[in-house]
Amino acid sequence: MRHRIVLIIGGGIAAYKCLEVIRRLKEHSIDVRVVLTKAAQEFVTCLSVSALSNERVFTDLFDLNDEREIGHIRLSREADLVVVAPATADLIAKMAGGHANDLATAVLLATDKPVLIAPAMNPKMWSHPATLRNVATLKQDGITILGPNVGEMAERDEIGPGRLIEPEQLVAAIRDHLAAKKHSRTTGLDLNTRALVGKHVVVTSGPTHEPLDPVRYLANRSSGKQGYAIAHAAAQMGAKVTLITGPASIPAPQGVTIIAVETAEQMHDAVHDALPADIAVFAAAVADWRAAKVPRDKIKKTSKKPPTLKLVENIDILKSVGTLKSGRPPLVIGFAAETTSLLTNAKKKLKSKNADLIVANNVSEGSDVLGGDHNKIHIISRAGTDTLAKMSKTDVAEQLMERAANLISKAKAPA
Ligand code: CTP
Q: Does residue 122 carry a catalytic annotation?
């Protein structure tokens, strides 16, 4: 299920940063309905906000059409979370006083959802007793205050607390809030149990690049999204996570140790260096072959015939860990990327690689799995096959780590 937030943009110089916030939230498949205060409209336009959010922008409390279609009550209730950024001194004062004389304040007073605010203002305004009093009131009301950061202000020579937190910090806070909430409400899973505290989880992710010469390489369409989501979910559940990633251009998850590699051979070495582990998850789409020889110089079009590539098979990293005689992680999880005979091939991989679980997914053209945001998986173990509905890669990661936590609690510790 997709999440939706209402983002109330206040009238401060930092309002422009919210455009980046909206873009990043959309990348994480979070829907954003934006309310612009009157003052905010001096800093960002409805047009740019609606182009990024892909939704109409809400500005007026007394717009009859809005009241009929979607008024402040619906706006505030249909969201999972209400976020205010930048929260100006004036908006904070109105919230603390319970005002409701414009759409933003009416939404804030009407909502029954959690509220996060990211203040931004001049340091003197932030440290004024009135603001401090208002912020304390909001905290008492259960509102989460993010920041402000300390730094240089738009006004020359002013340094101090008052800068809006950075877009990535705000997006991370929003996602953490949604993740914690989602688990109690939709799936019944609870990441807050921190069921992986004290466990070491190693995750491989992304494609590998196998050089053909100094400028060319062999690769595949993997984006690394599934592996990154698994690393993030494990970290949220309290695990120490080592993420060994091939080349990927997506933001790194917070709170995990990242080891960047290029080739299958480097990934293999990094995985074995990272052991011992309690859980090893092999989500990488490792290139099966590499060039038998990599010339030092670029291959030139000298002869009439195109060159013939001689390939050799790469080492199977999952199998090398699954079949370890000593130091095998108690829980070894592989993936099976198939375009035909999905379950039959995946079951073969469970055996041949000596994995405990295989996550089977169909990567045929049009399945939108490689590079996409969703996945439909079957979890195969020796006990049987469990088929899950199509869901976001974040949800897949959380479901998988939840099962892993259950299984590991029954397994013995690593040797
Ligand atoms: N894998 C690995 N090292 C390799 C090849 C694959 O660790 N050299 C892992 C993948 O990370 C995945 C599992 O093995 O967890 C299955 O990968 P997949 O690409 O589906 O299958 P392959 O073993 O490569 O076999 P095939 O390409 O013939 O389907």
A: no
